[in-house]
Write a structure and sequence with these properties.
The protein is built from 6 helices and 5 strands; from the N terminus they run αβαβαβαββαα. It has a 5-stranded antiparallel beta sheet with strand order 2-3-1-4-5, sandwiched between helices. A hairpin with a 2-residue loop joins β4 and β5.
Length: 175
């Protein structure tokens, strides 16, 4: 079944637009995966605010030209799918590595995260990093800690003075 030129051009423009808005792209080989497993993978990737797309290799190579993902063009061979995310590459990497552990047929080929090409093994390392919400929580804790210490120091002087006055009153009442 031949695909018309207009369909290919539409797919090419969709891929180009997707790559231009993405912060990270991870290439996957999905040979031997069941349809139900792919459906579950798509659901999990969407939950991580990413997208999963099976692509034609030649169209994907054309879409990569002029993007930070151009270094991935050598990995487009065989059955290839692309998972990409614009917001949180760590969440996407966690979903894909967790799913790949449960489904050995899914293989990570390579990835580009924030313009830097990384290998399949480094994607699993990326997945072990804390995500954006955890990093934001740690940052807020670090920003909040000096203020809490300042408040406790400022409260210490009146508290200690009150303690001394209570002790003095207690001593006077005993004598």
């Amino acid at each position: 079944m031949a695909v018309s030129r207009e369909t290919k051009e539409t797919q090419l423009s969709d891929l180009t637009q997707a790559f231009s808005g993405a912060d990270a792209a991870i290439l996957l080989s999905f040979t031997g995966i069941k349809v139900s497993e792919v459906t579950e993978l798509r659901r999990q990737v969407r939950a991580a605010k990413g997208q999963y797309k099976v692509v034609k290799n030649t169209l994907a190579k054309r879409a990569l030209v002029g993007t930070p993902f151009a270094s991935l063009s050598e990995f487009f061979s065989g059955t290839t799918a692309v998972a990409y995310a614009g917001e949180d590459p760590v969440a996407l990497a966690k979903v894909l590595t967790t799913f790949a552990k449960a489904t050995p047929a899914l293989q990570i080929k390579a990835a580009v995260v924030q313009g830097r090409a990384i290998k399949a093994g480094e994607v699993t390392e990326l997945a072990t990093m804390p995500g954006k919400p955890e990093l934001y929580a740690k940052l807020l804790f670090l920003l909040q800690a000096p203020m809490i210490q300042l408040v406790s120091v400022l409260n210490a002087a009146p508290r200690d003075l009150l303690s001394v006055l209570v002790q003095a009153e207690k001593k006077k009442s005993e004598s």
